[in-house]
Structure formats: C-alpha cells, structure tokens
Recover the amino acids of this structure.
C-alpha cells in the first residue's frame, strides 16, 4: 500500500514521440537537424525571424493531425482518479503541443512550462492569444495593432520558464514525482527530480532509456510511453487503492 497525497508528473518530448511529434536530442531529433542557437534563442529570432516563424508554423501545422496515445490518456485517468480521492495532482509539461489537453487532462492542473504552440504573443504589448495559423514578420497584433512584433508563445534558452512559482510550490509538498519521456538535459526541469527527492518524495522515471539523471529515481520503467505509462498508472492506482 502506498501512502501518498500529492503527485507531480513532469513530461517531455518522449511522451509525444509515438504521436508523430519529433523529440529534440534522439537520433533524428530536431536539434540534430537544426541548430538550436538559431531556432530556440531570442538572439536567433532577432537574427532571422522568418526562419524561426517557418519552423514554428510547420510544427503548428503538424499538430493539427497529431493525436494523443494511451500514455497521455493514462495520465488524464490518473488525474481524475487521484483528484476524485481528494488528493492533489500537478502535470508539468515541457511540451508545447496540446496532446495532454486532447487526452482529457484538465487545464486546472496542467502547466506548460515551455509555452504553447497554439498561442502567440505580442512582444510590444505582451498580450498572449490563441492562434492556430501561420504567422510572419508582417503579422499585426489584434490588441495593439502594431505590426512585426508577433512571436511564438514558447520559452527559448535564456528565457524564464512559465509557472515557476506554482511548480516550486507543488514540489515543496510532493509525495510522488514521476518523470516521463525527458532526457534531463534542460534546466530547470532537469533539476525537479532531485528537488522532489530532497523533499522526501518517491521518484519514478518512465522513459525509453535511462536519462541523464537516472540516478535520482527510486524506481524506473523503460520502454515506449504508450505502454509503460498505462502500466505504471494501473499498478500505482491499485497499490494505493483506498
Ligand atoms: C521516449 C520515447 C518514447 C523517446 N517513449 N520515451 C549551464 C548549466 C545548467 C543550466 C544552464 C547552463 N547554461 C544555460 C543553462 C540554462 C538553460 C539550460 O538548461 N541549458 C542546457 C542545455 C545546459 N535553460 C534555460 O535557458 C531555461 N531557462 C532558464 O533556465 O531560465 C532561468 C530561470 C529558471 C527558473 C527560474 C528563474 C530563472 C529555458 C529552457 C527553454 C527550453 N526550450 C526548448 C524549446 C521550447 C519550444 C519548442 O518546443 O520549440 O524546450 S529546448 C527543448 O528541450 C524544448 C524541450 O521542452 C526541452 C527538453 O527536451 P526533452 O523534452 O527532454 O526532449 P529530449 O529530446 O531531450 O528527450 C526526449 C526523451 O524521450 C529521451 O530521453 C528519449 O529517450 C525519450 N523517448 N521516445 C518514452 N516513445
């Protein structure tokens, strides 16, 4: 029997790999084809905004046909069951896709710490808006009417991730921390497992292979997310049945 109340789940690109969205650092990953300095930094965007818009316009288009799999669905089930038992659940995703939402995860417990592909932001007036279509250097902000300031609502290297206060609050009181489909290369997310462990949480890694921080996890299952996430969720819910 597991005694736990607060669960924090961290997901990364690996959970969306089987939905056809590429990962970043695997063989054939996005950063093996394109230099991240050009596509995922404010300086790269300043140097060549058309190139960066093209990259994000293509990924926004690919999202139109991407569908969640059993791994995303299992996390949505876990949230419903766990919250239904009066416990606390936080899903922190580094992914900018909307597959957790499509699978039924509630936005109330979901934090997109690296932003969202289906939102854009005006660098002039800071307004964030939902947007599914391509943008360009000529796009006009529907809030302040300025042209040339629209950018993807994503967090690039050197920028501050979103929702950090909420994430830190969840991690200070966490009983079970689960890391799914992330390589553990990018901070601050790569440090969450160690933080959770320091707070006395049980730490779990669900990934295709051991990540950079495999040593901070008490338990691990390795395999495709569509198989190991439902497997772990089923086992966890039956172990902790009230
Ligand atoms: C499967 C699978 C299957 C495959 N099933 N698994 C020196 C030391 C330490 C830190 C720094 C440093 N110099 C600079 C920093 C900070 C920097 C950083 O971490 N750099 C490192 C590279 C060293 N970080 C930042 O700049 C961040 N900001 C910051 O730190 O601000 C300061 C601050 C923090 C907190 C409070 C106050 C201030 C910002 C980071 C922004 C990252 N942005 C990107 C792009 C987002 C938009 C977009 O999508 O285009 O985010 S980069 C990219 O990497 C993307 C991802 O979210 C992120 C993480 O990648 P992820 O998800 O782990 O993917 P992969 O590909 O690496 O791994 C996939 C895994 O899945 C693998 O393990 C596979 O095995 C597995 N897998 N198929 C299960 N089917």
């Amino acid at each position: 029997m597991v005694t736990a109340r607060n669960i924090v789940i961290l997901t990364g690109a690996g959970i969306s790999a089987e939905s056809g969205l590429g990962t970043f650092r695997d063989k054939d990953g996005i950063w093996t084809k394109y230099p991240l300095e050009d596509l995922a930094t404010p300086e790269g965007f300043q140097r060549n905004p058309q190139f960066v818009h093209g990259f994000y316009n293509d990924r926004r288009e690919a999202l139109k046909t991407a569908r969640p799999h059993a791994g995303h669905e299992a996390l949505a089930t876990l949230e419903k069951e766990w919250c239904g038992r009066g416990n606390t659940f936080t899903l922190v995703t580094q992914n900018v896709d909307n597959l957790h939402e499509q699978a039924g995860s509630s936005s109330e417990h979901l934090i997109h710490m690296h932003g969202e592909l289906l939102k854009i932001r005006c660098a002039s007036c800071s307004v964030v808006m939902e947007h599914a279509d391509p943008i360009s250097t000529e796009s006009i902000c529907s809030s302040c009417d300025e042209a040339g300031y629209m950018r993807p609502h994503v967090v690039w290297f050197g920028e501050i991730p979103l929702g950090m206060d909420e994430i830190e609050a969840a991690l200070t009181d966490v009983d079970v921390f689960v890391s799914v489909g992330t390589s553990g290369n990018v901070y601050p997310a790569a440090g969450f497992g160690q933080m959770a462990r320091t707070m006395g949480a049980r730490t779990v890694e669900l990934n295709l292979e051991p990540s950079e921080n495999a040593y901070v996890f008490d338990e691990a299952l390795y395999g495709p997310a569509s198989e190991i996430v439902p497997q772990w969720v089923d086992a966890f819910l039956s172990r902790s049945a009230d």
The beta strands are 6-11, 88-93, 110-112, 115-122, 128-130, 150-154, 176-180, 202-207, 219-222. The radius of gyration is 18 Å.
